Amino acid sequence: MLKYIGRRLLMMIPVMLGVILIVFTLMYITPGDPVDTLLGDDATPEMAEQLREELGLNGTYIERLGKYLVNLAHGDLGICYSTKQPVMDRIIQTFPNSLKLAGCSVLLSVAIGLTLGIVSAVKQYSLFDNIAMTLAMIGNAMPNFWQGLLLMLLFALHWKILPASGFDGWTYMILPAITIGTSSAAAVARMTRSSMLEVIRQDYITTAEAKGQTELKIIIFHALKNALIPVITTIGIQFGHLLGGAVLTESIFAVPGVGKMMVDAIKARNYPVVQGGVLMVALTFSLVNLAVDILYAFVDPRIRSQYK
Amino acid sequence: MNEHTNLLEIKDLTVHYVTVDGTVHAVENLNLTLPEGKTLGLVGETGAGKTTTVKAIMQILPDPPAKILTGEVIFCGEDLLKKNKKSMRKIRGKQISMIFQDPMTSLNPVITVGEQIMEVIRLHDKKISKKDAYTKACEMLELVGIKADRAGDYPHQFSGGMKQRVIIAMALACNPRLLIADEPTTALDVTIQAQVLELMRKLKAKYQTSMIMITHDLGIVAEICDYVAVMYAGEIVEYGNREQLFHRPSHPYTKGLFACIPNLMEEETTLIPIEGMTPDPTNLPTGCRFHPRCPYATEECSKTNPASKEIENGHHVKCLHI
Amino acid sequence: EEKQTTDGSSPAPSETSSESASAGVEKGPVQTSDTEKVSSKDTLVVAFDREPATLDPLGNNVTVKRMIEGSIFDTLLEFNENMEPSPCLAESWEQIDELTWKFNLRKDVKFHNGDPLTSKDVKFSFLRVGNGTLGNDAATQFDPNGYETPDDYTFILKTLEPWAFTEAQVCSEALSIVPEKVVTEMGDDAFGRAPVGSGAYKFVSWTAGDNITVERNDEYWRDKSILKTIKFRIITEAASRTIDLESGGVDITLGLPTTDADRIEENPDTQLIVSTGATDRYIAFNCQKDVFKDKRVRQALNYATDKESIRVVCYGENTSETMDSVVPSTLPGHISSLKQYDYDIEKAKELLKEAGMENGFEVEFMYLANSTNNMLAELLQQMWSQVGVTLVLKPTESGALTTSLNKGEQELCCAGTSYSLFEAGAGLYNMFHTERMYSGSARSNLSSPEVDKVLDEINITSDAEKRAELVGQAQELIHEESPFIYIAFTKNIIGAGSKVRGFVPTPTAMYDFRTVYFVE
Amino acid sequence: MEKTKDLTSSSEAGSIKKRSQVKEVWRRFCRNKQAMVGMCMLLLLIFAAIFADIIAPYDPVEQDIINRLKPPSSAHWFGTDELGRDIFSRILYGSRISLTVGLIAVGLSSIVGCALGAIAGYYGGVLDNIIMRCTDVLMAIPSILLNISIVAALGTGLQNVMIAIGISSVPAYCRIMRASLLSLKEQEFVDASRAAGASDVHIIIHHILPNSLAPLIVQATLKIGGAILSCASMSFIGLGIVPPTPEWGAMLSTGRDFLRDAPHLTAFPGMAIMFAVFAMNLMGDGLRDALDPKLKN
Amino acid sequence: MSENILEVRHLKKYFPTKRGLLHAVDDVNFSIKKGTTMGLVGESGCGKSTVGRLILRLTEATDGEILFYDDDIRKYDREKMRHTRRRLQIVFQDPYASLDGRKSIFESIAEPLQVQKIYQNKKEMEEKVYELMATAGLARRLANSYPHELDGGRRQRVGIARALALNPDFLVLDEPVSALDVSIQAQVLNLMEQLQEQMGLTYLFISHDLSVVKHISDEIAVMYLGQIVEKAECKDLFKYPSHPYTQALLSAVPIPSIDYHVDRIVLEGDVPSPINPSPGCRFAGRCRFCKEKCRHETPELKDIGNGHMVACHFVGEF
Ligand SMILES: Nc1ncnc2c1ncn2[C@@H]1O[C@H](COP(=O)(O)OP(=O)(O)OP(=O)(O)O)[C@@H](O)[C@H]1O
Ligand SMILES: Nc1ncnc2c1ncn2[C@@H]1O[C@H](COP(=O)(O)OP(=O)(O)OP(=O)(O)O)[C@@H](O)[C@H]1O
Ligand SMILES: [Mg+2]
Ligand SMILES: [Mg+2]
């Protein structure tokens, strides 16, 4: 197992290099000059040139890439063009927030999605099933900003039970987590339902029944664990996406997250921050994937025995 | 056959599967008795309704689509069909246990075999401690010839034969009075099959458990059954003890079955297969259900469904021409 | 120096003119009445729309940053309610000759760390700005070798040429006075994240992306703040800012979306504060492009535009004001007598015909993609189609837009300008002087010798009256050239909780929160 | 003999025509109630898209400033937008672009994704490793960055927007395809086909694809709404559809500023998107079932 | 020129696995005469299917020769192999798994004709398919059915029709009846025999059920762990089973009669792992007669007369 994890960690290196290369190239070919955004409107061309020199934007593609990689090898992600902070600091400021938010949303979506999915599967074709699956579809299709603002209007303005925006404590996390959570809950619910449906038709479920086990316990002890693999996969992907992709929700609820930081940086062509942010998200994404794979092993001994 | 008390008596059992495509008459007016401590072989083609019958005994038929229309399943003097869910759960696993058709899929792949055996022990003996249950589970494994230290292993770490033995251990864990084995060896290799049969025979001798053995292999029947019931399209067409059936097969279907098995011991001639296919269960033939495939069928066979006749002591045949 | 914003999403909180009930303020804050009891609440939460990159006065000038800086730092001079430079850190000042100015500093000023503020710090602050590369041109007119500190409380500065806006420039927050010792110790970048000044508030904390908190400076050299703490919260989403105000999470919201103004006014829990600012919104022809080289084409399209409709739809009937000149009505020298290009399709067609363009043509309109600008563009497109002009819309992503505009690639764009020095001349110079072509403020890239001449003259005219007159001249000339289509003067719309008292919408955007308090 | 029996029955049924697989799937599809509801919904949308010129009561770009932001009324069923345009007409016209974007972007990404996934899964080894690592990389890059760069490189315009959206969702399909391929290629019927002399391409197209379609269809139908929304978010930062072209996503984003005063600006395009997504999902589920001959309706 | 249609020499297949080389087929030699049936029996996992697949090159052999009409097909390139496939066909073990569940019976049978592009004319091809269905005893009306709608016997017939589509000379029958019910099994076996008579087909009949193999084969090879341990004429093998494993195998088959009583030789334990097998007789671990020698020396396949070959050191001694 340790060896397996080690190998997977090693495999992350080429992926990270690929991420850097692609992001670097994408940013390189995208028109727009960070200097224009950084400098005020009344800056002179000389100032611009000087700044460009200072930021190392004058080198060729290869020079710049090489320099970035060398710095990276020393653990240096560069300096944010606008705030002049090390990119690492900026990531440290925003990343935990995104992590918390993503974590909460995933927990929520798992709670909702699993319950809906299981009940739907057990009561296949019932009214509940139909309603739950329709809700899932709507939850999936409903734009986040819409849902977010509606939630905010209801909970913060109308009922005044939750704060509207900001990120000051766990109460602040509820609304954004619901906003994101419900849309990914839809995916989890659908996935759970279909994989549960497959499992409850298996022979070992009948075996458990023949032992005299109760229905609830059969579902919890026997069926769920077997149905979990595709659900975990979905959750892993969702988690990865939420880390850097909850931009709209982050800005609506004024959550200082890494997604918003990256989008702002992209708009300002703040290269080091974009690269650092993407790298961080990619790294976490890979780690989450690894965690998912390890989780597989926990859930399913057959997979466990493959990790040698 | 009545010299023993009957452990199980099935009377007029009718089970239908109601589906969109029509109603499957899986089991129709089925009567069956099993004396205490004996083994009954239930033989018949695929789809004859063997599994349905035993699932009806256990009351684990999927509902919907399955519907038990009429009948009684009297086990130890009580009609199981009248029992509620809860008391039925107490009987399952404890009084009657079942071995399913496919050892490869009957074990939960993500739970250790020890725990799976423990589960049934603890379900029916609420007082037993976890540790004792585990010890008991290990004993059961040893009993079926698997080393106790493998209790912590997962099903995929066992071979097919071992899995089947685990299932047997699980089924025997609570000393059931009736063990139902649904084609316990079809998925296994001949040599492994021999091992499993050997084991079952030993256990039967040791615990005096009554058993229903479902199979379509007459060879297995010859080996371990005391009584044989031949099923065809949801009905028992012939019932008798081993000698009666093997020496004097009387129903044309039973005869056909014997004729189409290549026999290792006898000098070979050509096989005489039973013509045609199992009838469409949603659209059964009128009269005797076997008549479209029966070489002796007459006009009458297509009209009257014959009643079961006792042609000798305990040998029942359902044919007009006996 | 002025601030131009090319985005027009929601007018950023900008400069407002004069104090409550005075000319610029249309809808002043609720006044204190005797029956109200002062609340013990002593934290004010102010929401604004974007996070400053740094709080170093040296950094790129963004309105929000200046406002926060205003509370942390002091400048030598400051604008009073009539937008005239008045004493601040400098008790008094005088012009010694055409180029030389002398400032006498107060002796009782201490930085937040306890060190006294001396002329050395002033010199250091001015030099820093001169050396900066970050687009700060606040000191470009000053002679870097001309700063003198004869004693601890006297500071002398020299301009390179005679320059009329020296006093106004000294008021600008870029020339806030920073402690030399602290800055040298901390380094520029770190100082920008945790500034130390001499202002009414001390910096407390900065949670990236979330808030910046400052606390009352109890050692302040003049009236201290009533409230103990101010928390500046960053809420980028306009709708969220409004909701947070309504739900009580925020006490003052800057940059309220125009669509929410009515709601805030009607809500008994909130109050609306509207004041005229010094911000223009206009559509700029790129005069260097062939289509727009001919003044008549520009005038024709000006006639073809129903400016009032655009203003009402995009900037709100009551939250903006008709723009009748490039100089905002609040600035000295503004003239309201210009003959407007009133919406007149016939006249437009006529002029186009004169210019030989009666068969119509295609123009590309480049603008920052956001919903306000989209509306503006769509309205314009429909209007111009009536005179045969096909407007090709090119909404552009912000990162690429500035670069394109700075290269003058656009044919037509929309933009806005804030006159942050409150000197029309300074703003006009940046927008229209040939010198400034293709710079960030000069979106029309106009090059006219007559205009240049007047603007040059304004620069060296120290007499305010005279200057105002020249500004009037410049406006006429520019108006005739028609480089812009005037859309609106936008107002500053501020929302506040109904319990907030004492907020004065100052003209400088360096809102002074010292007088703010709550009632029960 | 059984054989003769079957043969005799065949002579009377000799007229039985061989049905093609497509027809067969269609027949099963038609029997699925939900799928038919979904298809009717979609047909309605397509009908609206094609005949928008005829049905729409107003010109979708005709502005009427006086009547801006009017709530639904008999004159304007869905009300008017911020420039006084008829929202109903705009939704009708908008279906053209939105449906195109949804369908093409999803179609593109699913085709490319499937092809890559199929290659990776079928051939395995180094190729598999390379392709899968590439998708890992692609998955880790924020789609907004990808979209900005792709559109910046190719230029704005509907076509490029669809390509951009398509590319950023390739990895998901690639993964799904590969996963089902890994298990499918070991199946005996694949060997049977090979034993008959079939080429790899034949096997992938005729056996593996039809058998792995179910999860792909589910994924694709779920993604259609997402594609429309990402098109909107691109328009929102100036990379997508250029106004005044009506497009649901863009209408939704513009309406955002008026969410509280004129909720109908967001509600109707939002419902239109949901309607389309719902229709697609119903159809997708129906198609999945229809593709599987084992499931009878 | 020999009368052998197929000859296999030193056929080897080692699968690389994580735990080592899996010796699925280890030096297998046999030949089959035209028009006869060779039975291949052995426990699950002993490599029977692999042999069948190797012969068709569905799996590439590690080593050895496969002479089809005295020509080594292992040397053929893709195209030539594709053509040869017409003459070498296989009927798979599991009729359900070997049919694509989404293709109708017609499509499944037509596939070989399509991929080999035998008929340009659609009509002709259809006719051929119906003809094949008739040969295999399938009613025409089943053409539009799907595999799941058929019972096992009919499915297996589809598999057979499919294999016959290209008029092969040689058929590998990989446990064609093990998934079938006894009565249907008899039908299929009869059909096979009938086809062999009519078309002069040659079969390699793989099974683990000795009674079935006995019924259909002319010659039988018994495999154990990738190797052939005994090979003989059908009658000889049943009369004088000489390898201890063959004896156990024979005794393990339940006899559907209560008159015979066989002394069952129950083999202890399961089939040992074929990964990196240790030298010596592979059956040694389960053999009742195992001696010291068996553990070290691999027994050769020896002729004990009449072409009856056995690989055991102590053949005839017990
Ligand atoms: N869940 C179900 N729904 C509908 N029909 C069913 C269901 N289960 C079984 N049947 C039908 O009922 C009949 C009897 O099935 P059953 O499983 O009892 O047969 P069996 O004798 O056990 O066959 P096998 O030897 O294949 O196990 C068959 O025709 C079968 O198709
Ligand atoms: N592709 C493969 N990769 C690795 N090992 C394989 C592969 N195919 C087969 N094997 C192994 O080769 C051995 C022989 O397999 P094969 O399928 O030939 O057995 P068999 O005799 O046909 O068994 P059965 O009776 O179960 O069909 C087995 O141990 C199997 O696990
Ligand atoms: Mg059964
Ligand atoms: Mg095999």
Automatic annotation (TrEMBL), chain A:
Keyword annotations: Cell membrane, Membrane, Transmembrane, Transmembrane helix, Transport
InterPro entries (UniProt xref): BPD_transp_1_N, MetI-like, MetI-like_sf
Domain ABC transmembrane type-1: residue ranges: 95-296
Alphabetical list of Pfam families matching this protein: BPD_transp_1 (PF00528), BPD_transp_1_N (PF19300)
Domain of life: Bacteria
Subcellular location: Cell membrane
SUPFAM superfamilies: MetI-like
Record PROSITE patterns: ABC_TM1
Positions of transmembrane segments: 9-29, 99-122, 134-157, 169-189, 227-253, 273-299
Family: Belongs to the binding-protein-dependent transport system permease family.
Protein name according to UniProt: ABC transporter permease
The species this protein was found in: Enterocloster hominis
From TrEMBL, chain B:
Subcellular location: Cell membrane
Claim: Translocase is one of the keywords in the record: no
Alphabetical list of InterPro entries matching this protein: AAA+_ATPase (IPR003593), ABC_Ni/Peptide_Import (IPR050388), ABC_transporter-like_ATP-bd (IPR003439), ABC_transporter-like_CS (IPR017871), Oligopep_ABC_C (IPR013563), P-loop_NTPase (IPR027417)
Keywords per UniProt: ATP-binding, Cell membrane, Membrane, Nucleotide-binding, Transport
SUPFAM superfamilies membership: P-loop containing nucleoside triphosphate hydrolases (SSF52540)
Chief location bin: membrane
Membrane topology: Peripheral membrane protein
All copies of domain ABC transporter, residue ranges: 8-258
Source superkingdom: Bacteria
Cited Pfam families: ABC_tran (PF00005), oligo_HPY (PF08352)
One GO molecular-function entry: ATP binding
Family indicated by similarity: Belongs to the ABC transporter superfamily.
The protein's name: ABC transporter ATP-binding protein
Lineage: Bacteria, Bacillati, Bacillota, Clostridia, Lachnospirales
From TrEMBL, chain D:
Localisation per UniProt entry: Cell membrane
PROSITE patterns listed in its UniProt record: ABC_TM1
Tree of life domain: Bacteria
InterPro entries linked to this entry: BP-dependent_transpt_permease (IPR050366), MetI-like (IPR000515), MetI-like_sf (IPR035906), OppC_N (IPR025966)
Signal sequence residues: none
PANTHER family: D,D-DIPEPTIDE TRANSPORT SYSTEM PERMEASE PROTEIN DDPC-RELATED (PTHR43386:SF1), OLIGOPEPTIDE TRANSPORT SYSTEM PERMEASE PROTEIN APPC (PTHR43386)
Recorded family membership: Belongs to the binding-protein-dependent transport system permease family.
Protein name: ABC transporter permease
Lineage, broadest ranks: Bacteria, Bacillati, Bacillota, Clostridia, Lachnospirales
From TrEMBL, chain E:
GO MF annotations in UniProt: ATP binding
All copies of domain ABC transporter, residue ranges: 6-250
Gene3D superfamilies: P-loop containing nucleotide triphosphate hydrolases
Keyword terms, alphabetized: ATP-binding, Nucleotide-binding, Transport
Pfam name, any one: ABC_tran
InterPro entries referenced in this protein's UniProt entry, alphabetically: AAA+_ATPase, ABC_transp_ATP-bind, ABC_transporter-like_ATP-bd, Oligopep_ABC_C, P-loop_NTPase
UniProt keyword Transport present: yes
Protein name: ATP-binding cassette domain-containing protein
Organism: Enterocloster hominis
